[in-house]
Amino acid sequence: MALQWYPGHMNKAKNQVQDRLKLVDIVLEIVDARLPFSSRNPVLEQIIDQKKHIIILNKSDLADPKITADWKLNFEQEGTNSIEIDAKHTKGMNKIKSMIRSELSEKIQRYENNGVQNYRIKAMCIGIPNVGKSTILNRLVGKNVAVTGNKPGVTKNQNWLKTNIGIDLLDTPGILWPKIDDPKVGMKLALSGAIKDKIYAPDDVAIYALNFMETHYMDQLQESYGLTNADIFNHTTPELLMNLTKKFGYKEDYDRASRRIIDDVRKLKLGRLTFDIPGEFYEE
Ligand code: G4P
Asked: SUPFAM superfamilies from the entry (predicted)?
């Protein structure tokens, strides 16, 4: 089943972002480091040229570090700087401040040349649900704050948050849903937990994950589940799922095995994985 994307949602989110864009110096686009393509925001792509912006690859603790480095290079070649962080464990947070200062160096220089003291840089965090916006905001603000954009129906008053890095953050606007034209993007978002589990059948998502791992992370797959070459070669991926179901001791409960595989992916039991590979995401 495909996730519906209504043009009305898109326009509303776009207008909300656009309205706020003029209030800030820079936009922090948060993506999931496991999905630097699939978790990018479709709204932002259309309007971002108007503003300085950096990409924050959050959840880097879960992603394949080599592919994260490739993505950083890829974004740089496209003209956007990016940093990787792990907000959950408060790692790399100081890179946010230094990257913002470097992006806005001319403006900061002007402030300093003109003797302006105590200037505040204004930024806005945006990202699809579950990429870690609230976690990042909480780390930067130093206490728990509610991200209004995550809650449908909450008044969308502008809310400035003072951070501990000399930057004022404009609370994120309304919910920025991902755009899912490509069914593979939907599978990846489901696998990462960005889309509610009930939207896709667990066996479809698990088969997608196993198939992707057979192509890109065969060693990790074999090692994590103790699979021999004979378990893998000359078997289709659905057959592999059936074999794993037996191996887990779940008899013929393929849904249970599928849910376990999805959970194992999310909890790092299969190692650090990235499901978007630069330049390859339409081929795998
Ligand atoms: P959102 O506002 O963008 O919707 O995302 P939020 O901060 O609520 O984070 C969604 C989930 O991702 C949370 O997990 C959060 O702990 C986790 N998370 C955020 N940043 C990172 C990170 O850098 N690394 C890892 N590994 N996880 C991260 P949860 O399961 O909803 O809650 P909990 O497990 O923290 O209780």
From this structure: P-loop containing nucleoside triphosphate hydrolases
272 part of a folded domain: no
**pLDDT confidence tier of residue 198, bands split at 50, 70 and 90:** confident
Task: Determine the pLDDT at residue 281.
Answer: 55
Q: Ligand 1, atom 17: nearest CA belongs to which residue?
A: 132
Shared domain for 222 and 150, answered yes or no, is no
> What value does the mean pLDDT of the chain take?
88
**Residues 141 and 45: beta-carbon distance below 8 Å:** no
pLDDT digits 0-9 by tens, 95-106: 999 999 999 999
Same domain, 157 and 224: no
Strand pairing report for 167-170 and 160-162: antiparallel
DSSP labels for 65-106? HHHHHHHHHHHHHTT--EEE-BGGGTBSHHHHHHHHHHHTHH
User: What is the reported pLDDT for 164?
Assistant: 77
**Protein residue with its CA nearest to atom 4 in ligand 1:** 130
**How many structural domains is the chain composed of?**
2
85 Cα nearest atom in ligand 1: 23
Q: Is 38 known as a binding-site position?
A: no
Given the structure tokens 């728990």, which residue do they identify? 144
Mutation test residue for ligand 1: of 88, 93, 95, 171, the one with most atoms within 8 Å of CB? 88
